[in-house]
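Continuing the series of single-chain predictions for the mutant panel. This is the parent chain; the variants come on the following pages.
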Amino acid sequence: MPFKKLLKSPFNVFRIAPPIPEHYSNKLTYDELVNAESVYGRTIFGPIPAGHQREFFEHRKNIWIWHESWTDVSGQIINQTIRYEVRPTGVFKKAAGDTYRKIEGKELDNFVNAAKTYLKLVKINLYN
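Parent structure:
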């Protein structure tokens, strides 16, 4: 399916955010909801190595964040954050200090699968 058609699809994973149930919306802040959702997002990419922290979540409409941090052998904390922007022309990736670049092929497939899995897990476990 061409990417533009995917964006216009009524089942588009990038534009359908899970609904926030009424009983949550008055009690939890946006940040608390993102933190609750990222609990499921961090599980998508397999086991988290000891000493690592991982987050994957939809920051806002069409903006996705993957973050991982760990302490290296010298004791220095390493942070890696990647921002994905879903645009009508494709999905663009930006790491800290880099410029945006369009992702394609297997990398695009992996991102789409991760986003679909995230939305499914969040919907089933938090909003069902």
